[in-house]
Amino acid sequence: MKLVSNVYNTLRIAALLLLCVLIGAPLSGQAKREKKVRQSVDLTVKVVDESGNPVPGAQVVIGEGITHTETAADGSVAFKAYPEDFISITSPAFEKQVLVVMDVMKNNTVSLVKSKMYMTAADNVPLPFTPLKKRYITGPEITISADMLAKYPSSDLRNALTGITSGLDIRELFGWPGISAQENLSSFESTDKFSNMPVAIVDGVYTDLSEMPLDVSEIESITINKGVLANAMFGPVAGLGSIYIKTKHGMRNERILNVNLETGTSIIDRMPLWTKGADYARLNNMARIADELPEKYAQSDIDAYALNNPFDTYHPSVDFTDYILKNTMSFKRAIVSSSGGNDVVQYYSNISYNGEGDIYKIGPKSNFSKISTRQNVDVKINDAFSVSINF
After folding, report:
1. Which pLDDT tens digit goes with each residue over 359-375?
2. Residue 65 burial by CB count (10 A; 0-12/13-18/19+): exposed, middle or buried?
3. CB-CB neighbours of 255 under 10 Å
4. How do residues 240-280 score in pLDDT, each as one tens digit?
C-alpha cells in the first residue's frame, strides 16, 4: 500500500507539472504576441478636406495626450505611436475626428468633414441644463473663452471681464487687494446696491462671486445671458441677467499638463493730488481778500509752511499720500493643472496660487494671498447615465 501511495503521489505531482507547462506555454506565446503588437511604428499622415485639399495647422493628439503636434503647410504630420493608440484631429470649421492608428495605417490619409457655420465643438454655448450651438441661439448670449480671461493679470475674475463684452459694466469700487470689482448688467439705478447685479451660477450652483472668488485658471467658459428667454428658468432672481460659469473638465483621449508662472507689477493710473501747506495758505488769503476779510496767514507763516517740515509743531506740512501710499502693486501667479481621460473616465485637477500686493507702505500684512484647488471627475455609467464629482 505504501508503494502504491508513493506512485500515486508521484503521478499527481507529474500531472500538476504537466498542466502548468501546458497552461504556461500559451500564456508565454500570448505574451510574446502582445509584446510584438506593442512595438511602436513611425507614421506619416496627411490631413485633407473632402475635396482632397491639405488642411494645415490641424491639431493632432496621439495616445491620450502623450504627443501633441500639428500638420504642416502641406497637411502632413509625422509621429511615432502604437497601432492601438487613438489619434484625435481637430481644426476650426471641421468636425473632430477620433481614429485608431491601426486604421490610419491603411492609407495614411485622414479626411476631415466640413462643419456647418457655428456648428463645431468650439461653437458650443454652455447653458445651465444643456449646451447649444451658436447656430441655434437667437438671443444676445455671449460666450467668453478661457483664453480671453487668462490675458488679464488679476486675482479677481470680474476684473478680467472688463471690456470683453457689451452690456456688462464692471466697476472697481474700492481697490482692495484680491477683490475690487462689482458687476452690473443694467443701466437702471436703485437704492439697493445689490438689486441691479446679475446672478452668478457656477456649474449649476448659485454663487456669490464676492464670497467665493474663482481663479481664472479653473474656468473653461463664461456665458453672459442677457436675454429674457435664457433667464426665464431662474425666475425673478435673474431678472437683470445671469453669468453662467463652467469650470474645466477632462477631455477624452487628450492628456494635458499645464504649468504657468507669472509675475508683474500693477501701476496706479490715478492718485488724488492735494495742495501743499504753503499753497493752501496763499489761496486761503486770496479767498478771504475777495470776501473783504483780513488775511489769516502772515508771510512768515507761509514761508514756514513752504519748508515742508513734518516735525514743525506750529507749521507742519506733510504729504501723507507719499508717506502712506505707493503707486505700484506686485502680482504673482502660479498654476499647475492636469487633465485627460478615456471614453469612460475624464478628470481635471488644478492647484493655483495668487498673490497681490497693496499700495500701503506698512509691510506685507495687507497683501492678498490665495491658494485654491479644483478637482473634477466625470464617469460614464452607460449610454444613459453619467456621474460628475466636483470638489
Report:
1. 888 776 677 888 889 99
2. buried
3. 19
4. 788 888 899 998 888 888 898 988 888 877 777 888 889 99
Grid cell at residue 119: 456648428
CA 80 to chain CA mean position, Å:
31
Q: Which residues pair with 329 in a beta bridge?
A: 266
Q: Count the neighbouring beta carbons within 10 Å of the beta carbon of residue 175.
A: 12
Q: The whole model's pTM is what?
A: 0.68
**Phi and psi angles of residue 244, each rounded to the nearest 5 degrees, phi first:** -100, 120
Question: Which residues in 286-297 are b (16+ Cβ under 10 Å) and which e?
Answer: eeeeeeeeeeeb
Identify which of 322, 317, 332 has the alpha carbon closest to the alpha carbon of residue 359: 322
User: Cα–Cα distance between 164 and 144 in angstroms, integer?
Assistant: 8
Q: Residue 140: what residue type?
A: P
Number of other CB atoms surrounding residue 75 within 10 Å: 22
CA angle 65-91-85, nearest 5°?
30
Residue 59 CA from chain centroid, whole number = 20
- What is the three-state SS of the chain? CHHHHHHHHHHHHHHHHHHHHHHHHHHHHHHHHHHHHCCCEEEEEEEECCCCCECCCCEEEECCCCEEEECCCCCEEEEEECCCCEEEEECCCECCEEEEHHHHCCCCEEECCECCCCCCHHHEECCCCCCEEHHHCCCCCEEEEHHHHCCCCCCCHHHHCCCCCCCCEEECCCCCCCCCCEEECCCCCCCCCCCCCCEEEECCEEECCCCCCCCHHHEEEEEEECCHHHHHHHHHHHCCCEEEEEECCCECCECEEEEEEEEEEEECCCCCCCCCHHHHHHHHHHHHHHCCCCCCCCHHHHHHHHCCCCCCCCCCCCCHHHHHECCEEEEEEEEEEEEEECCCEEEEEEEEEEEECCCECCCHHHCEEEEEEEEEEEEECCCCCEEEEEC
**Strand 109-111 versus strand 41-48 pairing type:** parallel
